[in-house]
Structure formats: C-alpha cells, structure tokens
Amino acid sequence: MLKKFLPLLILLLIFISCNSNNDSAKIKDVIYRNVDAMNKKDVETYMETIDKEDTLEYNTTRQMIEFIFKNMDIEVKIDSFSIISFADDTARVFVRMYFKTNGEDEKISNMEHFLLKRESNWYIKSSNILQ
C-alpha cells in the first residue's frame, strides 16, 4: 500500500522544498535590496521593501529614511545573513552588518528583521537592533 503512494509523497516533498527555497531566496533578496537602497539613498526602492499594511508606521519610516538620506552619508555592508525561523507567510532573519555614517569608523550592527509575505512578495514588517 505504501509503495503505491511513495512516488506521490516524494513529489510532494520536492515541491515543498522548492517552494521553501524560492521563498528563502526572495527573503534574502528583500534584505539585500533594502541595504542596497540605503547605500544609494534610494527612498523609493527602500520603501518597496517595507510592509505597507500599517500606514502610520509606513509613513513614519518614509519620513525617517528621507531625513537620514538627506542629512547623513551611510555605507552599509552585509557580513552575514541567516533565516532564524520561517513559516508560510512570516519569517524572522538575522543580519550582521558593517556600517559607516558620515565617514566615521566602521561599526557592527546585528539586526533582527521580521518579514511578512503578501501576495507572494516579502516585506520587512519590523526590525530590532540586537546587542
């Protein structure tokens, strides 16, 4: 009986694995596009990586990033990236970054990002600086 369903189970596992890998790549892409937008001072691309569901937080983030881009020189490099947890439409990632502001010495920042999936796209919902 089990032999009958074994090919179907194998196909199902392959499909789940491929879908998970695709989401993992999309999550990583969102984080890297966010950092790239910071380095280029590209407000529009930066905001494309942010969840729009909470309009007050979205607008506050936009105002903050516009102020930072206008008043500071920022250089950010990702040192490491890892997905801590992952479910159907949520993910938690850890990112270790090196950053410089206004030509100061390079500093290390450990970040935890929470992402949401909406209509097959991933967005950063919130972020925390870890010590």
Automatic annotation (TrEMBL):
Leader sequence segment: 1-25
Answer whether the UniProt record assigns the keyword Lyase to this protein.
Answer: no
Keywords on this record? Signal
> Which InterPro entries does UniProt cross-reference here?
NTF2-like_dom_sf
Matching SUPFAM superfamilies: NTF2-like (SSF54427)
Protein's recorded name: Nuclear transport factor 2 family protein
Q: Which organism is it from?
A: candidate division WOR-3 bacterium
